[in-house]
Write a structure and sequence with these properties.
The two termini are 41 Å apart. The chain has 345 residues and is mainly α. The chain is built from 19 helices and two strands. It has a two-stranded antiparallel sheet. Helix 13 packs antiparallel against helix 14. 62% of the residues lie in helices and 1% in strands.
């Protein structure tokens, strides 16, 4: 199912055949019902929807195109290795043999990619209104755990359907989440989806945190984010600032048009800008310098060269100061910021 996110027939002509999700749909339709159903069970909800739409698109595919899809599939299959299959148990066994069970567990807790709890899997197939109805009468901590296990756009929709007075508290708890025990997830499953199936013992699921909260906030309607941040600031000013920092980062300045970027640069001291640009992506750096006069841009480049290497902490601090100036200008209506997610006006 590689490249499932790309759909459509290749533009290289009939010989090239279908590609992306159209090719995956053809393969799926050539299988028996039970085999196709088993494959679908491994996909995400949005992938199932995307693939289902593609299956309608290939109803009148030609025999040559089907053959082309099979040839491509067989070629890719031969190129795959088995090294990634069952990797997790083997890595754990090697770590335990080398370090002992306790030390291995500590290392694995830091390096193992976050996994989504299977106990809350049914929630991912529900719409936002259904999920919101399930958690509306529950404790905000339960709502926070649910949101942290959803994709940010869906979590944002659910959050906006909850009473406005509880929204800051829920985001506060999402940001404070670090890990949720398997037992708590199992109990939550019983509360929310009324299933009796027992959850297998598993390591704590690492979800939540300020970054997760910021992703949810970035998907709210324009204006809703500021209201929640202001209310959240009354609960925990530092946490509110951390979430706001995650919502709008230095790389987001790339989304500003030349006019707004020029307004920002006129309000930033050269010394601050020199340090901030030292750690910026080259494209962003050139875009920002391109909004200045040639003489001013050359002066900034010369100063950057003269400064030599700078500590990362110093660069990040200058970038935060630039962003703070940008927010103040946006709040006063002097410019419009386009951060990740919705616009700030």
């Amino acid at each position: 199912m590689d490249n499932l996110e790309t759909s459509g027939f290749s533009s290289n002509g009939p010989a090239a055949g279908p590609s992306g999700s159209d090719a995956a749909a053809i393969l799926l339709m050539m299988l028996g019902d039970s085999e196709a159903a088993e494959i679908l069970s491994y996909l995400e909800p949005d992938e199932v929807q995307h693939l289902g739409s593609a299956m309608f698109n290939v109803a009148d595919v030609s025999e040559d195109q089907v053959e082309g899809v099979f040839n491509t599939f067989m070629t890719r299959t031969r190129q795959r290795t088995s090294i990634g299959f069952g990797a997790a148990p083997r890595i754990r066994a090697v770590m335990e043999h080398a370090l002992g069970a306790e030390r291995a567990e500590n290392v694995l807790a830091r390096i193992t990619p976050p996994t989504r709890s299977r106990a809350l899997e049914p929630l991912r197939w529900m719409d936002a209104k259904t999920i919101a109805a399930l958690i509306a009468e529950e404790h905000p901590q339960i709502a926070a755990i649910v949101l942290a296990h959803l994709e940010p756009p869906i979590a944002a929709d659910v959050l906006q359907l909850l009473p406005s007075d509880v929204q800051p508290d829920v985001i506060f708890r999402v940001a404070k989440l670090e890990s949720v025990s398997a037992e708590a997830i199992e109990e939550l499953e019983k509360i929310l989806v009324r299933q009796v199936a027992r959850v297998n013992t598993a390591p704590a699921a690492s979800r939540g945190g300020a970054s997760e909260a910021a992703k949810i906030m970035n998907n709210l309607r324009p204006g809703s984010d500021k209201t929640i941040i202001r209310s959240l600031g009354k609960l925990d000013k530092q946490l509110a600032q951390r979430i706001e920092d995650e919502m709008f980062v230095f790389e987001d300045l790339m989304e500003l048009d030349d006019k707004n970027l020029g307004i920002l640069l006129r309000n930033v001291e050269n010394d601050m800008l020199v340090v901030a640009l030292k750690g910026a992506d080259e494209k962003l750096r050139e875009k920002m310098l391109g909004c200045m006069s040639a003489r001013a841009a050359d002066s900034i480049r010369d100063e950057m060269a003269e400064r030599g290497p700078l500590r990362l902490a110093e660069v990040l601090e200058s970038q935060k100061e630039v962003l703070a100036i940008a927010r103040r200008l946006a709040d006063s209506g002097s410019l419009m910021l386009a951060g990740r997610g919705d616009d700030y006006v």
